[in-house]
Amino acid sequence: MNIRNATLQDLPTIVAIYNSTIPGRMVTADLEPVSTENRLIWFDDHDPARRPLWVVENEQHKVIAWMSFSDFSERAAYNITAEISIYLDPAARGKGLGGQLLQYAIDQSPALGVQKLLGKIFAHNEPSIRLFQKYGFEQWGNLPDVCLLDGILRSVLILGRTV
Fold first, then answer.
1. Which residues are within 8 A (CB) of 22 and not within 5 positions of it... i.e. 6 or more apart?
2. pTM, full prediction
3. Which of 74, 90, 94, 121 is deepest in the core (most CB within 10 A)?
4. Do the bridges between strand 116-122 and strand 53-57 make them parallel or antiparallel, or are there none, so unpaired?
5. What is the rounded radius of gyration, in angstroms, for the C-alpha atoms of the chain?
């Protein structure tokens, strides 16, 4: 497994992995697939020195996952806090990769000036909640019924930890 900074050439694969999660209604509130074009600004917002976007390659150099740090808020005083996102290719799920990436993110946080990591996770996404809790994240917030997915109100939990 190789973790590296994402390049623009990786963006179509990043988008494909993201889009693979939409139908399951467990990971994202997007209801329709996104395009590579409409993710360009999001891609450009990532800075390897502060808010990285990493991809994970397998032994065959195929991108099988990505993770990113994003600003919690645009206000400078919040720069010590980052939101983490982790997305895995369907074939890479359930094999422990998510935990490896979460630990990698925790380990890299101090060098990026990050003291607090947050994850926003649907309350019905029990596997992701268990994963984050296994790595020391605790529930720091609950946003009840803030999302409507296929006619069902869904809550979002904010899980956080100090690194």
1. 28, 30, 31, 32, 33
2. 0.95
3. 121
4. unpaired
5. 15
- Nearest-5° Cα angle at 160, 51 to 67: 35
Going along the chain from its start, the domains and CATH numbers come out as: 2-115 (3.40.630.30)
Q: To which H or E segment does residue 129 belong?
A: helix 126-134
Measured in whole angstroms, how far is the alpha carbon of residue 95 from the centre of its chain?
Answer: 17
State which H helix or E strand residue 95 sits in.
none
d(CA 101, CA 17): 15
For residue 149, pLDDT over 90 is answered with yes
In the sheet that 2-5 helps form, which strands lie side by side, from edge to edge?
2-5, 53-57, 63-71, 81-88, 116-122, 152-162, 138-149
pLDDT for 154 beyond 90? yes
> Nearest Cα to 55, choosing from 103, 111, 13?
13
Are 161 and 138 contacting, i.e. CB atoms less than 8 angstroms apart? yes
Residue 108 tokens read as: 């890299």
What's the CA gap between 105 and 109, in Å, rounded?
A: 6
